[in-house]
Amino acid sequence: MQIIIVLLVIWAILSVVGFALKGLFWLGVIGIVLIIGTILFGAVRRAASKR
Fold first, then answer.
1. Which residues touch 48 (CB under 8 Å, ≥6 apart)?
2. Looking at residues 9-18, what average pLDDT do you find?
3. Which pLDDT score, from 0 to 100, does residue 40 have?
4. Axis-axis angle for helices 25-50, 2-20 (nearest 10)
5. Proportion of the chain in helix, strand, coil states, percent, rounded to 5
6. Residue 15 φ then ψ, to 5°
7. CA 34-28-16 angle, 5° bins
8. Does residue 14 contact residue 31 with C-beta atoms inside 8 Å?
9. Quick one: pLDDT band at residue 2, thresholds 50, 70, 90?
10. Cα Rg, the chain, nearest whole Å
11. Tens digits of per-residue pLDDT, 14-50?
12. CB of 31 within 8 A of CB of 15?
């Protein structure tokens, strides 16, 4: 669970930097996609560990 939280923080930082700098808009978009992917991955792992 700690790894997922660390990844979410890293992706959030990348997104903020990407949206703050006009030339790095693509970095913000990739950060958002990675945040969503990490949340989904964490949800799947949590559901699997409850079984």
1. none
2. 87
3. 93
4. 160
5. 95, 0, 5
6. -65, -45
7. 105
8. yes
9. confident
10. 13
11. 888 888 887 778 888 888 898 899 999 999 998 888 8
12. yes
Tokens of 17: 């930097």
Question: What are the structure tokens assigned to 20, written together?
Answer: 């703050």
Q: What is the pLDDT of residue 30?
A: 86
For 20-35, b where at least 16 C-beta lie within 10 A, e where not — what string?
eeeeeeebbeebbebb
Burial zone of 11 (CB within 10 Å; 0-12 exposed, 13-18 middle, 19+ buried): buried
10: its two tokens = 């890293």
Question: Cα–Cα distance between 17 and 9 in angstroms, integer?
Answer: 12
The model's pTM is 0.71
